[in-house]
Known about the structure:
By secondary structure, this protein is mostly helical. It has nine helices and no strands. It has helices spanning 2-12, 23-44, 53-64, 72-95, 100-125, 131-155, 166-174, 186-209, 214-234. The protein is globular.
Amino acid sequence: MRTQLVDAWRTVAPPRDDPHGPLPPLLVTLTVVTGLVDAFSYLTLGHVFVANMTGNVVFLGFALAGARGFSVTASLAALGSFAIGSLLGGRLIVVVPRDRGRLLATAAAAQVLLVAAALIVRFAAGPDVSRVDHYVLILLLAVTMGLQNATVRKLAVPDLTTTVLTLTATGIFADSHLVGGPGSKAGRRTVSILAMFLGALVGAVLVLHAPRALPLVVALVLLVAVAFATRLASRRRSTWATT
């Protein structure tokens, strides 16, 4: 238990000699953002995720089968927009191939612009969101999350994917010493799961009991913080920033 607690603490407050520098807590923050935007999209834009593409593939199957509350076009829009975001992230990786600090700072800044645009659309739509506004929001947010996923994949910080938690949860048990494994790193993996849970919980509470756009406001604030913190930290040209 003590090892797991130390592992969790080093994820949110890494030591100076951590090979990934400040990236672990920054990626934990992005995991919270994922929970926030998926709560907003699922609860306000119909049964569709903008970050969890596995869920959208399943929802697409439900919709094609005729299940109520699911939309073929919304699922396809999210999947297509996520792909566009991933392409943009891939291009950014080509442009900034060996500087993890600059890569994350630039990607987070782009996310700030996209989420800000989504907020403008949501506020301009007023209480009744039109079908067009509905799909514009899906487009902007799914592109945001596709960009994030491509960036985080390149950063390659173990067990901090910011979206895919199925493998994270599996690793807690499959890699455990109890089954003769190398060690599950349960502390870090649990922090990642809790971060997603926290984002989803806060996002859902805000949607249900506050102005519906508020989860996006919180996500925007967190993204600004990530962009600023990364830019500030990467100026020191530490070894973690280069690959």
